[in-house]
Amino acid sequence: MITALLTVIILAALAGVATVATRGAPREIALVDRIDALLPQTQCRRCTFEGCRPYAEAIAQGAADINQCPPGGERTAQALASLMGVAPKPVGKEYGVVPDYPAVAFIKEESCIGCTKCIQACPVDAIVGASRYMHTVIAADCTGCELCIPPCPVDCIVMQPAPAR
Amino acid sequence: MTTTELLTGGLRIEAHKRRSTKASVRAARLIERYVIPLDQHSGLPALPLVKPADRVRMFQPIAQPAPGISAWLHSPVSGEVLAIEPRPAPHRLGAPTMSIVIANDGRDERFDNAAAVVSFEQISPAEACEHIARGGIVGLGGAAFPTANKLESSLCENGPQLLLNGAECEPYISCDEMLMRERADDIVFGARALLHALCAPNCTIAIEDDVPEAQTALRLAIEKAADARIRIKVVPAIYPAGGERQLIATVFGVEVPHDGFPADIGVVCQNVGTAAAIARWIRDGQPLVSRIVTVTGDGVSEAGNWETRIGTPFSSLIADSGGYTERMSRLIMGGSMMGTSLPHDDLPVVKATNCIIAASALDLQPRGPEMPCIRCGNCSQACPAFLLPQQLHWYLQPFDSEQLSRHGLLDCIECGCCDYVCPSQIPLAERFREAKPLLARELDAHLTADAARARFHSRNERLARLEAEHRAKLAEKRRPKGEPSST
Ligand code: SF4
Ligand code: SF4
Ligand code: SF4
Ligand code: SF4
Ligand code: SF4
After folding, report:
1. Test site for ligand 1: of A48, A55, A97, A143, most ligand atoms within 8 A of the Cβ
2. Is there a single domain that holds both residue B274 and residue B393?
3. Of A69, A96, B331, B455, which one has the fewest beta carbons inside 10 Å?
4. ipTM surpassing 0.85
5. To test ligand 3's pocket by mutation, which of A128, A131, A154 has the most ligand atoms within 8 angstroms of CB?
6. pLDDT, tens only, A95-135
7. Of B98, B452, B455, which is closest to A160 when you measure between CB atoms?
8. Which residue range(s) make up the domain with B208?
9. Is B449 within 8 Å of A160 when comparing Cβ atoms?
10. DSSP structure string for B232-289
């Protein structure tokens, strides 16, 4: 309870500081942030970068094209093209196929040996478990990046259609 | 008999119920495989209790509710679990969703459910609620919201009003009418169980003025039960009188706030079918494994109502109805006004399947070429949800999610009144129906993407911090003894 109160107070203080700061200098949102806002945040690295943010940085520096994100599909490529003022184009085949429907990872719990490898691979902390205990995916937090699948030594992680929200 | 006018909005539409109400409710044919989607109710998908190759009996629980809003699922037949895998589902418009597939052995061996039969007056309201949950009971009016979850939200504290919705305003659907005609006793029994579970003082059953047989049957059943708490309220057959919010406004003359729920104004609304399902569970030990489905439209040979086990493919019901006619042009689940088009008929009946329309061009609203909006205002006058359809339409092209959500697109109940009255033949409701999930998904995707970005960021920071701490420790170890640290 006390910690919760403290957090609230600290957050309120921070918010106060933040508004003061922005009021002092109303500045444009950085290009990187605007690009990052358009990316799906799947963090799957199919764009060949270490996540959405690094890809956004590469686009901002002109080091990457706008059509490298399969999870974002046509919509993201379009939005990126209009933000960057370039001609739209479909997602490059070399980066992977655009998924038909959103999916999430599912650990077949009876086979899991609790090696923790998947936890180490998950870019968004969507897996819970402890060494030598069964692991499980928090479906609501899973972005469906599939990065946990290759490291699993017993191949007990499968992709499933995402539950309706 | 009293009738009230709708407060606002709505239309009188010619009903097409006659052709499906000539014969009584018949049992749909049994088939070899039943497909039970785990997410067929609102809320979270149920969690399977069985695995492939398991033997199951009829009425046996096969999935339990996930924590939160969710529901039990039971096997409609006895047989063997073939698989738990993604299968196309009607509530997902044909997209795959995890489902339990059961092979029927044709023996209908019953699971021992003796404990299910209780005398509800002898258990506490909370226990009654829990018991209703165990029967897999969900709202049968179309939304499939788990009934126990709905009851919990207004349990007993203030003895809410119970409203049973028998106003089936969609012009083609007749499953509730048939239910009221043939199983009025079940409805009254279910009403009494609900009264107990809610500590409600009385129950109003709303029924439309154009179904006299159903009214008579219900009156008789109420008389037989001799329960003075239950009364009938006849409402005009105006579309969409049976919409939950519209019905509450008609019956109680109070409006549900746009960002609130009926419970907020002390009303709990349940479909009559739900009450009957509760009766079958509490009185007979039969969980919700079947329901009445209306099969109708000019695209099937013989329209009718079928007692259908959950998991039966649409195609089998179509075969029961004598197959398609050559005029068949579009398959719809739900009503002609608010239903959704489906790509094919290899989809299982789910708890929410109240009606299947095999529509011909005759059934579909004749529509001329679309013309520009002339700002006549007809649509906003007809809209029972107090929206401005012409404005919403304006913001669809290009898709302006901010304005659309500000103008309440998500409050649209997709009733179709607006485009029914539009002189410019603009298919407004259809566009809204398509746009709503897009908008909801967009709003939702923004939230989840923000959350994923934040977790990605905090994880990277954590890894960097651990790495730095690790390096510092290493450096500490390598430093010769006695030498002061450099920092
Ligand atoms: S490909 Fe994956 S990591 Fe790269 S931007 Fe798209 S979602 Fe993010
Ligand atoms: S659980 Fe697997 S698929 Fe889901 S976000 Fe984590 S690594 Fe990606
Ligand atoms: S990698 Fe596989 S076996 Fe290891 S903890 Fe994760 S799910 Fe279990
Ligand atoms: S805007 Fe929606 S709720 Fe209003 S009349 Fe049209 S379909 Fe019905
Ligand atoms: S009814 Fe049709 S023409 Fe009239 S205002 Fe509405 S959309 Fe425009």
Report:
1. A55
2. no
3. A96
4. no
5. A154
6. 999 998 889 999 998 999 999 999 999 999 999 999 999 99
7. B98
8. 18-27+117-291
9. no
10. EEEE---BTTTSHHHHHHHHHS-PPPTTS-GGGGTEEEEEHHHHHHHHHHHHH---S-
